[in-house]
Structure formats: structure tokens, C-alpha cells
Model the fold of this input.
Amino acid sequence: ERQVLCVANQKGGVGKTTTAVNLAAALALRGAEVVCIDLDPQGNASTGLGVEHPPGGPSVYDALIGGCPLQDVVVASAEIPGLACVPATLDLAGAEIELVAMPDREFRLRAAIEGFESSAHYVIIDCPPSLGLLTLNALCAAREVLIPIQCEYYALEGLGQLVSTIERVRAHLNPALDIGAIALTMFDGRTRLSEQVAQEVQSHFGPRVLSTAVPRSVRLAEAPSYGRPVLTYDPASRGSIAYVEVARELAARCARN
Amino acid sequence: ERQVLCVANQKGGVGKTTTAVNLAAALALRGAEVVCIDLDPQGNASTGLGVEHPPGGPSVYDALIGGCPLQDVVVASAEIPGLACVPATLDLAGAEIELVAMPDREFRLRAAIEGFESSAHYVIIDCPPSLGLLTLNALCAAREVLIPIQCEYYALEGLGQLVSTIERVRAHLNPALDIGAIALTMFDGRTRLSEQVAQEVQSHFGPRVLSTAVPRSVRLAEAPSYGRPVLTYDPASRGSIAYVEVARELAARCARN
Ligand SMILES: Nc1ncnc2c1ncn2[C@@H]1O[C@H](COP(=O)(O)OP(=O)(O)OP(=O)(O)O)[C@@H](O)[C@H]1O
Ligand SMILES: Nc1ncnc2c1ncn2[C@@H]1O[C@H](COP(=O)(O)OP(=O)(O)OP(=O)(O)O)[C@@H](O)[C@H]1O
Ligand SMILES: [Mg+2]
Ligand SMILES: [Mg+2]
Done:
């Protein structure tokens, strides 16, 4: 059965895109078929996977607003077999206003994924840093939410709002939705701050927190400038090894559910 | 004359809040009277300035939606004389939907600041990571935009969209608006990536880029957990010294304009 996972957190810069891109790559390298859907108008996930996304070009906007089938806009990775991406373009910036007027405004992405002719095992959706209609579409289309949490203080503040939004979506729009896992990101073992935040998150979310924390590693920040996931850019780096572990743990959890 | 500055960039986690909080503190410590307005429902700037902001409590939401005067919701800093904050609460999360229905939806904040009975020399607005109606309100209320740019690759991607949004606002909604300055943040001199991004930004924006780049410094990330700007939490840290410099440079630019 196809697993639809959405990577969400309205706090900015916590590693949503880095997690979506590298998790998708790691699952594909383990032999799964994976499609990453970029739902952020900035198109960072498209860039991170090396997929061109000029404004006006084919993108998730055509599926979300224009009703065009996802198989017509998906682009295979040039590097990793089994990996593909539905890119985002700047056209998506206006989508939230256009969606407001549609009767099925929260379910457009879900309908597109249900009609998606693809043998993908995983669909991973990268969300923008907000809880607007784009993220709501992802929460309505997914069975699980993966929440990246940066190991810094400000990142703790928005968690209550995120959890209550997920609960509201489960109660009124998508009863299958659940918090699948929490990934600690940018963990810096040299600082007390990272340790404190990690402990706080673990005491709150318990077993949902993945046992692998992704360390802060500059190779992760460099890889996008080459349009490659860190898994192919520098497979021996700590960042890459961490995402291989995260993928292994997540695949095991999905198999159990 | 009162300078209204908005700190904006739709890319998440680039240091908007850290810049708004520490710039406000640094300007106040130089003797100016400063009010920081938190326009992000997560309330990070309120936390960073040590101001309580429980849901339902007095906040910028009351001024933006309820039309209540800003002087009724502003809170003086307990630590730094001359510094005050208009806090944000979770109530702000629903504001964008409520604003859509109002005829003067882009100008609510501008009207509130124009009616603000205060002797403040500077009003600094911290924006959420999006280009929705909250950020549009800030762009319509401000004379200058301060754009923090993290020295990493993904942060370059959204700049075109941000600049064209500012130009559209200047053309149709606020002719006085201009890009006041660009602040490079989280600069890590040990990595090639930081250097490359900094050069790219300088070649694009030229003299608008402040000569002080804010270094990556864990003290900046620790300070919010004590509810204090880094300027009082650890005045000798590199992060604090950098924001003192940023404030000096910005004050000189404001004086010249
Ligand atoms: N573990 C890490 N170590 C070092 N840098 C990282 C790590 N994870 C992400 N980064 C870098 O930090 C920045 C923020 O990460 P990213 O863009 O993935 O976050 P995001 O949550 O998707 O941001 P946004 O809220 O804008 O969508 C990027 O420049 C990225 O390259
Ligand atoms: N120069 C710096 N050195 C180290 N850490 C920093 C620096 N500037 C900001 N930070 C930390 O990086 C994280 C992101 O910064 P901040 O929250 O200020 O960005 P933002 O643009 O306001 O994010 P958002 O898009 O969510 O509003 C925070 O945890 C902050 O403490
Ligand atoms: Mg992202
Ligand atoms: Mg912020």
C-alpha cells in the first residue's frame, strides 16, 4: 500500500526540505520507489533534487489548481533510480488565494494523489513554513506527519499550535492522519542547548521521536548548491549516515503500522 | 520623525526574529526609544524580549483586527529602558482569514501605527515566514524593509520573489517603501559556502548590504531560552558585538535618508 507522508512544521528553517529530500533519496537507495512532492512556492525541494522548475513550467500547481494528473508533471531524478519529484514553481505563491474559492479546497492534493498513476511505495510532501491551505492540503492527503524539530529554543514554541492543527484535521477532515514520527535536526552535541531541547522533545513525544538525531553538518547545507541530496553528494558524511538511519527507522515503523 | 522598519523574508529560519529582537535592543541601548511589533503567531519575538503572551491576552491581534490602540497593548521591556514590545499571541493565526474580508485589509497595521500615541523613534516589525496578508500589512506600514539573508544556498532562491513583492507593494500600495538594508546572518567563516553566498548577495545588492555580517554564534540561539536579547545575555559575545555594529550602521543610514 502506498505510504503518503507529509513533512510539516510552521516554524521556519527547521530542516523540512532537507529531511524530505534526503529521506526520499535514502528510501529510493534502499530499493523503494519514491515520489517527493514540493509544496513550497520557493521550490527548495525541487532544487535539492536537481529538478528544473522555471516559473510557468509543469508543476504541482497544475495538479492542485488545474486538475491535471500528477503523472503528467512528475520528473524522474537524473541520479537515483526509483526517485522522482513533482516540482513547485512560483505559480504556487498565488495558489492559496485561488484555493479559498474552491468547494473542495482542502482535498485537491488528496484527490490528485488518489488519481496518481504510479507504482510509488512512498509519496513524501515537503510543506512551506505556515499552516495555511497548502499545508492543510498536505495534511488531508497524508496518513502520517513527520515533524522535523530543530534543536533550538524558538523551535519549541510553535509545537502546541502544530499538534492542535493536526488534531483538528484528524477530527474534521482526515481521520486517518497521525503523527508518524518526530525527527530531531541540526543537533550540535557540543552545546547544552541542543541537549536540553532534545530532552524536552523526548519527554513530550516519547517513542514517536526517532532515535537518530540528525547532526548539524555543513555538507547538508552544501549539497543543495550542487542540486544533489547529501546521500550522493557526500555519502560518508555524518549528515548522510544520519538520513540513512532515519530512513531505515521510518521504513520499519511504516511496515509495522 | 518615526522610522518604521519591517524585517521580512519568506524563507524560514534566516534570522528575522533574532535580528528584530537584537536590533531593537541595540538601538535602545544607544539611547533611542524603540517599539518592536511581533507579527508572527508563534510569538518568538515576544519570547525573545521576555514578554508574556498567553493566548487571549492583549496583543497586536487586538489592534489589527479589533481596532484597539497600540498604546493599550504595548509592554515595556523589564530589562532595557526605552525598549517596548507589542506581543503576538496564537489568536494571530486566524488573522489572515479575518483580514481577507476587510476592505482596508492591507492597511490595518499602518493605520494602527499612525494612530499610535508613542514617542518611539523606531518601530521594528518582525514578520512570519510568508508573503501573506500579515507580511503585506507590515510592508504597507513600513518605510524600509530590512532583509536578513542566511548565508546558505536555499536562502538565495526566494529572493527574487521577495524583491518583486516589495516592488509590487511600492507600485500599488505604499510608494514610500524601499529596501533599506540587507543583513547577512549566520555567517560561518570556516565554510566556503558562507563566503560564496555572501559574495553572491553583495554582487546582487551592492551597497545595500550592511558591512557587518552576523556570525553564527550559539549564544544567539541560547539567549531566547532566558527571554533576553543577546545584548544583555552575553554582551561580549561575537553575536552581540555584531548586532551593536548593525544598529550603528542602520542608525547612520536612517539619519542620511
Ligand atoms: N542538519 C543540518 N546541518 C546543517 N545544515 C542544515 C541541516 N539541516 C538543514 N540545514 C540547512 O539549514 C537551512 C534550513 O533548512 P531547510 O531549508 O531544509 O529548512 P526548512 O524547514 O525546509 O525551511 P523553510 O521553513 O524555509 O521551508 C538550509 O540552508 C539547509 O541547507
Ligand atoms: N547568528 C546566529 N547564530 C546562531 N544561531 C542563530 C543566529 N541567528 C539566529 N539563530 C538561531 O537560528 C534559529 C532561526 O532564527 P530565527 O528564529 O531568528 O529566524 P526567523 O527567520 O525568525 O525564523 P521564522 O522563519 O520561523 O520566523 C533560531 O533558533 C535562532 O536562535
Ligand atoms: Mg523548506
Ligand atoms: Mg521569526
User: Anything to note?
Assistant: The pocket of magnesium ion (ligand 3) is lined by residues A 16-17, 40, 44 (CB under 6 Å). Chain A touches chain B through 38 residues (CB under 8 Å).
